[in-house]
Amino acid sequence: MAEQLFRAHGYASVTIADIANELSMSPANVFKHFRTKTSLVDAIATRAIGETLDALRALAQDRPAPERLRALAHQLMQEHLSGQTDAPYVFEMILVTIREELDCGERFRNMVVDMIADIIRAGVCADLYHVDDAEKAANATFDALTCFIHPVMVGLEKADIMATRCDQVLDLIDTALRAPLAK
């Protein structure tokens, strides 16, 4: 119910009393489960992140690692781009998660880094990538892709230009994973 109200009216416009009223319960009952309005946003974001990542995990596992990595980055970028136009109040909630440093942001990062590490390990097994530490490479890859997969950064550029730049960065990442820097 909170998510529906936030999507329809915006986070700032909805109170715990509004949510409780829609649920035919007292605000105290809502506070019993969610101590603050931001904890509701954290729960909503965590669920949404899980759904997004489940969809990302379904990306073709039989494709080569470089294609999977590219598909992952483009899917995340597209997800955030469409969210800004289709659900502008969701973007307001994303800003709350960032401003309030909610746990869901770190969970999102960790889940995506784990997915990238799995892709890198698959690339190593296929003898495409030559990386000793998949987790370290995955963290660096996530950081390099942040301007294309972070919901706030996605809104700063035209979609076609951003997609081209994302591909260029992915080409650079792929090259680095195939022949890492000498120690």
Describe this structure in words.
The chain is mostly helical and 183 residues long. The protein is 77% helix and 0% strand. Helix 5 (65-86) packs across helix 6. The chain is elongated. It starts with a helix and ends in a 5-residue tail after the last helix. The model has no long low-confidence stretch (mean pLDDT 86). Keywords: DNA-binding, Transcription, Transcription regulation. This is TetR/AcrR family transcriptional repressor of the ameABC operon. Pfam families: TetR_C_27, TetR_N. Residues 1-52 form the HTH tetR-type domain.
Number of helices in the DSSP assignment: 10
Structural class: mainly alpha
| pLDDT < 50 runs, ≥5 residues | none
Q: Rg from C-alpha positions? A: 19 Å
Estimate the global geometry from the Cα principal axes: elongated
Order of secondary-structure elements = HHHHHHHHHH
Domain HTH tetR-type: 1-52
Keywords: DNA-binding, Transcription, Transcription regulation
InterPro entries: Homeodomain-like_sf (IPR009057), HTH-type_TetR-like_transc_reg (IPR050109), HTH_TetR (IPR001647), TetR_C_27 (IPR041478)
DNA-binding region: 15-34
Summarize the structure.
With 183 residues, the chain is mostly helical.
